[in-house]
Amino acid sequence: MNRNVFSRLRPNAREFADSGLSNQVGIQSSRLLGSNGQFNVTRTGRHRWHNLSASHELITMKWRRFIPLVIGFYIVLNIFFAVLYYIIGMDQFMGTLGESKWDAFQEAFFFSAQTITTVGYGRTNPVGLLPNIIASLEALIGLLTFAIVTGLMYGRFARPVAHLLFSDNALVAPYQNGKALMFRVANSKTNDLADVEAQVLLGLVTYDGHNFVRKYYTLELERTSINALALSWTIVHPINETSPMFEFTPEMMQEFEAEILVNIKGFDTTFSQVVYSRTSFHYSAIVWNAKFRPAFKRSEDGTETILELDKLNDFDILPTTAPTTLTT
């Protein structure tokens, strides 16, 4: 990196000191925030079990993992108790049918399923002391397990999540006789988000005369909040004389290792709670001299507005220059 990059930054650019991120470059990842909104941080120094929060993992994991996990745990637990009953001997149970070993194991398995769910059809029941003790223990475990699963299900459904979609690219587009940095965001769900606010920071790697440091600058927005996110919202930062990006070129963005950090906050009217969403645009995802295409239109009968989420990132390159993107 050129050591003169700091001197090329606008002298009136206002530094943001409360980002919660370090300004040390050499010991930090090249990208601070992934496009999925997660910080690129891996925690070490403690045993992995200390870093694991079972409730957090179970509430936040995808449904396609959660449902098979619950079903798998239920099957494994029943197999465990079925093996215990089978080892004790099915002669300790009344009402069993079948004579083969496989029939006996099936009886043990389904008796376990009926016990752990407290269904108890009544055809099969234990008669010895040991099977009754194990069945009582299994019933207790079943009650506790279903209470936990019920709590997890409630937590998953009650947890408000901002289902926001961001454009894949940010654009530098013409704006009011100048240019501006723009990107789009939309709500992918049908719930209402009110009082939506946006904060945008610019992260730059600069040379302070002794070391390379990462500095953060607030990008003043044309509009920092909107009443409701009913359609797509194009967030605009005018690149004027007061902007840290004034007179920047794609090459300078690469030289500064620029990253646009975005934080969106809104009020979910369904859950009556504030929700957050983050993303970032690496300098390689910024397209210069381009313009977004419309992402919504009127329905054919004129009664509705159609928001086309698959067109959120559609843009046109303006004819004056060729598109410019940088790769790392």
Could you please describe the fold and organization of this structure?
The protein has helices at residues 48-51, 54-60, 63-88, 101-116, 129-158, 250-255; strands spanning 93-94, 125-126, 164-166, 170-175, 178-187, 193-207, 212-218, 225-228, 233-238, 259-268, 273-282, 286-288, 290-292, 296-298, 305-307, 315-317. It has 2 domains: 6-35 and 168-317, Immunoglobulin-like (Sandwich); 54-158, Helix Hairpins (Orthogonal Bundle), CATH 1.10.287. It is elongated and about 90 Å long. A hairpin with a 4-residue loop joins strand 10 and strand 11 (273-282). The mean pLDDT is 84. Strands 3, 4, 5, 9 and 12 form a 5-stranded mixed beta sheet that branches. The chain has 6 helices and 16 strands. The protein has 328 residues and is an alpha+beta fold. Helix 3 crosses helix 4.
Name the beta content range: 25-35%
Count of helical stretches: 6
CATH hierarchy: architecture of the largest domain: Sandwich
Please tally the β strands and state the result: 16
Which sheet architecture does the biggest sheet show? 5 strands, mixed
Distance between the termini: 14 Å
How much helix is in the residues? 25-40%
Shape: elongated
Q: Classify the fold: give the CATH topology of the largest domain.
A: Immunoglobulin-like
Uncertain runs are none
Structural class: alpha+beta
Question: Could you name the CATH homologous superfamily of the largest domain?
Answer: G protein-activated inward rectifier potassium channel 1
What value does the Rg take, in angstroms?
Answer: 29 Å
Q: Can you tell me the CATH class of the largest domain?
A: Mainly Beta
Write down the domain tally.
2
* Elements, N to C (H/E): HHHEHEHEEEEEEEHEEEEEEE
pLDDT averaged over residues = 84
